[in-house]
Design a protein that fits this description.
Blueprint lengths: L6 H9 L21 E3 L8 E2 L3 E5 L8 E2 L19 E5 L2 E2 L1 E5 L3 E5 L8 E8 L2 E2 L3 E6 L4 E2 L9 E3 L16 E7 L26 E4 L2 E2 L5 E6 L7 E6 L10 E5 L2 E2 L12
Parallel strand pairs: 2-11
Antiparallel strand pairs: 1-3, 3-8, 4-7, 5-6, 5-9, 7-8, 9-10, 9-11, 12-14, 13-14, 14-18, 15-16, 15-19, 17-18, 19-20
Length: 268
Amino acid sequence: MPASVRFSTVALLWIGCLLGDQKPAPRVAPYYDAASIVNGADNQSGQFAANTIATIYGTNLAYSTAAISENDISAGLLPIVLGSSETQVFINNYPANLYYVSPGQINFLIPPNVTGTSMAVRVTVDALVGPTISFPLGAAAPGLFQLDASNAVATFADGSVVTPQSPAQPGDVVVLWATGLGATDPNPLYGRVPTEAAPVTATNLAILLDGVPVAPGAIAYAGLAAGFPGLYQINLTLPASTGTNPEIRVQLDGAISIPNVHLPVTSN
């Protein structure tokens, strides 16, 4: 079963944002380009899938700054507008659920019901409309949330964070936090907070440590983190052969997370 992690810890990863400049932006059309729309976990551009947390960087993206709070979730429904801002993000004309808006950054969820081989992204601020930018849409777009520039976010079974100062050891069970792992059973509903664990349906999920896939039996669970839209967790038993601070990557359905991200591990 998925490990339980307190809301305060996971919400920080889930929202994945820092509050920015509070001054209102000029009332001109929002601007962004293809390179500035990225996976919200690792800032990888050009690789997207349904139910992936994503980020848009740009200018004039909102009149004010607001981050999602529990008060913004009503009857299990996620917001499509935050705070006093009139910002909305549309994916193939579906209004995306928002986690954070500011003049320079938006964090949002690619709707889980988006299908097809491409997606069109458009930002509107009140009556002002930004460019429509199209991207390929894949079955998966794995990205690991990062503790810092070098290390993935991982927690021990008790919810404490794996860090260079408190590393894991071979044989430990760790929980990795990711987005973009694709379809699950059951699949999350558009606009709603998932209320139960749901494993990914892909059968080719692989975790690579220093380029070597771990045995499938080492992955006890890979699927939705209940209560956190767009967030997935992977419960992994580290093999006895795990080296010190291995590079860690997630691969499935022809997509792979970025290189040079490590897991803090000390090996004897």
